[in-house]
Amino acid sequence: MPTNAARARTSGANPVLFLAVIMLLGPAWGVPDAVAHGRGKGGGHADACSGTARAAATACRHGALDDYWIAVGNCDNTADRDERRSCVVEAAGALGEAQDECRDQLDARRDACDLLGEAPYDPAFDPADFVDPADIGGAVAANPYMPLVPGTVWTYEGGGETNTVEVTDEVKEILGVPCAVVHDVVFADGEATEDTRDFLAQDGAGNVWYFGEASQELEDGEVVSVEGSWRAGVDDAFPGVLMFAAPEVGRVYRQEYRLGDAEDLAEVTATTDSETVPAAACDGDCVVTREFTPLEPDVTADKYYAPGVGLILEVEDGVRNELVSVTTP
User: Fold this and answer.
1) Do residues 301 and 316 touch, judged by C-beta distance below 8 A?
2) pLDDT digit string, tens, across residues 84-97
3) How many CA atoms lie within 13 A of 199 on its CB side?
4) Which fold has domain 127-327?
5) Count of other CB atoms within 10 angstroms of residue 19
């Protein structure tokens, strides 16, 4: 396999720009990252979370470099010399931005490790401990903050979008666990832009688990992306908890886990808050969580849950997504 320098000599890319890119990359692109992740450097179970963060950062950087060289190859296919040079400069700029994002994600994952601890994430569960979704709200009490009662529909509005969430009577078994299928559709200007099926399960203690989602982004009725889709047990993905039966302030937990694709976390920030939206209110008994992900370090969302109703408000970047109606069977 030719070296990076050999590729530069044969690609027609600006050699001065290439040297600048290599200086920008520094030694982080070399073998030492892989060595540092090994047990000889403290990797493995002793610091599983931090080791995973380092490995993900290495993958991110190599992915950015791969994108850069594909872009340079496409630039070489441009006949006009000035356009070709501008193209390579633009590719180098994109590489720099991607590097910054990789560093930000690494910092965010390390921050998450400080909150979660270094233990490997491998949640233990027994399928026998989960309830039949059809029994929730009847023979089995629903989680008060996330009631998965079949037939319940929540409608939210905010930021120019309308979002409907319905607990269907469909059941999907994942890793032996019966999961309720929750249909979530986002509309903008009357047109569906996102169509997602979430797979949620309630255990006997009342905790609601997240076992995956099938997500579609739509444009003009056509599927343009399924990014964000994942399922526990596939490609080293694990389930997480969306809502505990008894939330405790300060608790930080994973809601989903597929490294590089699904890494949402949450922290319970309050259990005695108050809020009012068009369809519901809570007065001193609202549970509030802060949701965040290392994949988008600058994005956080505060969610408010009213007992007996569920999610009533999401606030992200100052935009309020409010519950405007709820129907129950």
Assistant:
1) yes
2) 999 999 999 999 99
3) 23
4) YmcC-like fold (2.40.360)
5) 12
Instruction: Provide the 3-class DSSP secondary structure of residue 37.
Output: coil
Domain ranges of the chain: 4-116, 127-327
CA distances from 41 to 33, 106, 326 (A): 10, 18, 54
Distance (Å, whole) CA 212 – CA 63:
25
Name the phi and psi angles at 85, rounded to 5. Answer: -65, -40
CB 52 within 8 A of CB 109: yes
Strand 177-188 and strand 208-219: pairing? unpaired
What is each CA distance from 124 to 127, 175, 231, 239, 309, in whole angstroms?
Answer: 10, 12, 16, 10, 29
Residue that is written with structure tokens 């200086």 in the block:
23
Full-model pTM: 0.85
Q: Which two tokens stand for residue 165?
A: 């969430």
- Are residues 174 and 130 in contact, defined by beta-carbon separation less than 8 angstroms? no
pLDDT digits (tens, 9 = 90+) for 242-278: 999 999 999 999 999 999 999 999 999 999 999 999 9
Q: Angle, to 10 degrees, between the axis of helix 48-76 and the axis of helix 81-116?
A: 170
